[in-house]
Amino acid sequence: DVQLEQSGAEVRKPGESLKISCKTSGYTFSTYWIAWVRQMPGKGLEWMGVIYPRDSDARYSPFFKDHVTFSVDRSTSTAYLRWSSLRASDSAIYFCARRRYTLGVPDGFDKWGRGTQVLVSS
Amino acid sequence: VLTQSPGTLSLSPGERATLSCRASQNVGSSYLAWYQQKPGQAPRLLVYGTSITAAGIPNRFSGSGSGTDFTLAISRLEPDDFAVYYCQQYKTSITFGGGTKVEI
Lengths: 122, 104
Description:
The complex is a heterodimer.
Chain A (H helix, E strand, L loop, with lengths): L2 E4 L3 E3 L5 E8 L8 E6 L5 E8 L4 E4 L7 E6 L4 E6 L8 E11 L2 E8 L3 E5 L2
Chain B lengths: L1 E4 L2 E3 L6 E7 L8 E6 L6 E5 L3 E2 L7 E6 L2 E6 L9 E6 L5 E2 L3 E4 L1
Parallel strand pairs in B: 2-11
Antiparallel strand pairs in B: 1-3, 3-8, 4-5, 4-9, 5-6, 7-8, 9-10, 9-11
């Protein structure tokens, strides 16, 4: 059974760093892209980017590039999302999701984690 | 940019729902997905490749369209279908629409 288990809620102050995790199981981690999606309070879904665990090839949405970093640990089948300096506007729920394939071409996100709530407040 | 309409759709169980997703550029015929999200839950993939229903999704959900205009139809609304629905294109990078809330 494919599962994406995300780390628990976090509270930080502006300027602090944070790394949240998405531990996967039930499939071959290295061969599926992992996406990160932000959802601000009461708002819609925003695609942040994707990472390919086999070679750590990361693609960022222009809006999030230079503010977040994706990484993976293949030994534990875990993906990470990191901020080096948080802002109050980073307060949101962050989802990880697995990107499925059709005939070898990546398409929709078929499995999702439950989300990690991040609150940034002084 | 993906624009979803209407923002809110008020319907009764048993009625048909038609949700629209319009793209600012040509998305082709195979690069659009639809998701359902209920309060406090992660999104769930309903349709990918514009018209392919994902595993485990009831056949009352169907997707169609091509180019810049796409539709998600729910043939007969059940109580469990009242939720927010998002379209997503993945032809050029990835973007989500703003969502349509289907309410009772």
